[in-house]
Amino acid sequence: MKIEGTIAAVRAQVKAWKKEGLSVGFVPTMGYLHEGHASLIKAARANNDRVAVSIFVNPMQFGPTEDLASYPRDLEKDAALCESLGVDLIFHPEPEEMYHEGFSSFVDMSVLTEELCGLSRPVHFRGVCTVVSKLFNIVQPDRAYFGQKDAQQLAIIKHMVDDLNMDIEIIGCPIIREEDGLAKSSRNTYLSAEERQVALILSRSIRLGQELCQQGETSAEVIVEKMKEFIGTEPMARIDYVKAVDGLTMQQIKEVKKPMLVAIAVYIGTTRLIDNFIWD
Ligand code: AMP
Q1: Which of 30, 50, 168, 245 has its CA 20 to 30 A from that of 136?
Q2: Rounded distance from Cα 231 to ligand 1 centre (Å)
Q3: Ligand 1 centre and the CA of 170: distance in Å?
Q4: Distant-in-sequence contacts of 175-184, Cβ < 8 A, 24+ apart
Q5: For residue range 186-210, what is the model confidence (pLDDT) as tens digits?
């Protein structure tokens, strides 16, 4: 396994693979890898001749008051995990390598970015679309793997690839959870022992929403209200949003439809966590 920090080195490696007719699977990450990331890497490993993983905490997708500086990093541990999963190449650039002086081109998207995380994190998806476009141009993968954990991001990337005619297959992978239900996240490391317990309110409210759907509830508004009420019983949890949206357009809906995305963002102390389910 190679670890490269420059765009030129990655391009040279990928070019050599392509010359041999090998397919390339790509998993973009911000590092501090856990089993959620590992599931994407395994899916990439199973369906491609070569697997590339990027580890880059992208400054452009963080707002000025967000956790860019404190975001957890551990390249050595990440590299060991990647090696054990059969990754061929890690791309780990410095911010200066990705954003040279005078950088001034951006990939932006309307409609899909207006709801959910786009509302509370106004610069986030412009940063995501820009960095993912750049990474796609650098790695030129045949397939790229994204988690359903970031459901809005997955929908946006699929839409972007379609809009901009990028010749890359986007593959969504299911949410990987801890045994007690908490969705795995690099940010879980911010939680104190007490907050870690409180954080279960997210996955439990997701389960409540799923049960209501299974019981035949037809009002998306009722589902959202009941989930909000449930989260409200936990004094240490502060709701950013609980919303039901059209699974394709990400626009808010009143009645249950398929596919429907029910997504939540909740602060536990100062840590903002997200979770969701799709009703399809
Ligand atoms: P991140 O490093 O948080 O930017 O995530 C990199 C990729 O891993 C994204 O496509 C995420 O959706 C995915 N991912 C993160 N956590 C999970 C999880 N618990 N289950 C599945 N995929 C995940």
Answers
A1: 245
A2: 23
A3: 14
A4: 175/36, 175/147, 175/148, 175/149, 175/275, 175/276, 176/34, 176/35, 176/36, 176/38, 176/39, 176/147, 176/149, 177/203, 181/207, 183/36, 183/149, 183/273, 183/274, 183/275, 184/34, 184/35, 184/36, 184/149
A5: 999 999 999 999 999 999 999 999 9
Atom of ligand 1 nearest to the CA of 148: 12
Q: Relative to the CA of 185, which ligand 1 atom is closest? A: 16
Active site residues: 37
pTM tops 0.70, yes or no: yes
For ligand 1, atom 11, the nearest C-alpha belongs to: 147
pLDDT tens, 82-94? 999 999 999 999 9
- Calculate how far, in angstroms, residue 216's C-alpha sits from the geometric centre of ligand 1: 30
